[in-house]
Fold this sequence. Notes:
2 copies of one chain form a homodimer. Chain A is mostly helical and 202 residues long.
Amino acid sequence: MSEVVGQFKPRPRGETRRRILNIAADWLQQRGYHGFSFAQIADELEIRSGAVHYHFRGKADLVEAVFARYREEFAWWCGQLPEGPRRSVDWVERFLDLEAKNIERGRVCPLGLAGVEFASLPAAACREAEALRDELRDWLTDTLHTGRANGELSFSAAPQDMAQLVMASAQGAIQLARLQSPGDFLKVRRALLASLGATAAH
Amino acid sequence: MSEVVGQFKPRPRGETRRRILNIAADWLQQRGYHGFSFAQIADELEIRSGAVHYHFRGKADLVEAVFARYREEFAWWCGQLPEGPRRSVDWVERFLDLEAKNIERGRVCPLGLAGVEFASLPAAACREAEALRDELRDWLTDTLHTGRANGELSFSAAPQDMAQLVMASAQGAIQLARLQSPGDFLKVRRALLASLGATAAH
DNA sequence: GTCTATAACGTGATAGAC
DNA sequence: GTCTATCACGTTATAGAC
């Protein structure tokens, strides 16, 4: 009918929604739930802040959707892991790499964020974060358990306790690294792999 | 001269300032820098929000002072540790107890908070947090190093790497515990002590 | 010296234009 | 269906009362 309708620039269907999610995830992991506003998201998209409410009813819904997407992304990530002779060691290292990627982008782990802001985060977002934590924990527990049974790994604690240690230290290490000390993640990574009885991949 | 001056209730000199610091520390560790306001502090003290600005020039100064006090408290805490036959193991356990105390009070570790909100925290507060991190790391490194030399502890990684692991996992564990899972800290504690080659004091 | 009243601004959210 | 104009509220900060 017409290529440009009214006074606003139309975008491909679903495109704006996807962009909002990306920008929100970025801000959320960089500055926390209360550290960004609809106006900032709207500025990046060159629209008014009210327009964001068309795609997401409120900030709570937006952040819930961001956390839900983290879960989808993690499920996808799990599915693309390669099998191999050092499966468990490789997978743990890849998990640590995945967490470390946050540092380059100036982000923290979403779970760390949720833990810190728990008391002021919308309940629905907390539920998503808890589900993500469970999924990470179960995946790690299974991976560590298998690795020890294989003889790839060697540690004395229970696999689930060790899984919690890996999760907690990874998210804590990212936070320490942000405090003007980017090398801190690597130190934790070394100590963690040594504690798991895994020699570095090279 | 007079027992009640004007229309406000006078408090002992320095008392209001101290109370503001206490309340701010509580809110800060419970909800983050952007998660509380001067009005909320003022409400608890039954004064107007503007009055807080008499004691602290702005929110940045207030939070800087809170972080500075964490450093003082840690220095005091270090000074009151008892010597003994299991000095290093005991000290590490006491450190973990100190961190765990945050959970009971609904707080996270100040360093975790600073790491998460780093990008939107006043620069002066970040400097204080970095100094606190250095002090914790140095104390832990020394304690772990001594413990391994004593034969109390047994681990293969470098003491400083291990110190970072202890710090990171403690603050991460507190955050995980907040996500409706209070037992998570204990799991990390067990895995950590096992990785340090220390048997639990029970 | 200590606090109250009020300003100036930024926030999430809504009603309605097109 | 998508976005703009605008609102009511909460925020930090300042000026000045006593």
